[in-house]
Amino acid sequence: QVQLVESGGGLVQPGDSLRLSCVTSGLTFSWYAMGWFRQAPGKERESVAAISRSDGRTDYGDSVKGRFTISRDNAKNTTSLQMNSLKPEDTAVYYCAAKRNLYGNISNVYTLPASYDHWGQGTQVTVSS
Q: Is the pLDDT of residue 129 over 90?
């Protein structure tokens, strides 16, 4: 059974940092491209960051470029999202997602929610003074 478990969310003030982690199990992690999405109340789920299966190629949403960094550790089956200079508009539930990419280009990154095969339960991030 595939599981993705996010952690690291919380309540922080504007300008603070948070690091989200997503531990996966039940899948061959190195076969999967990974992504982080977020969804605020009343809004669609949006791509925050994505990383390729194994060569480290990344993609970021325009609103987080220069502030957020996605990474992965294939030895620990984990992906992380380092979030710096947080703003109130970053408040949302953050989701980790996995996209199986065994036969595709190892550099592929995916930004559409529909592309992903597995999702975590989400972790709340609230940025407020």
A: yes
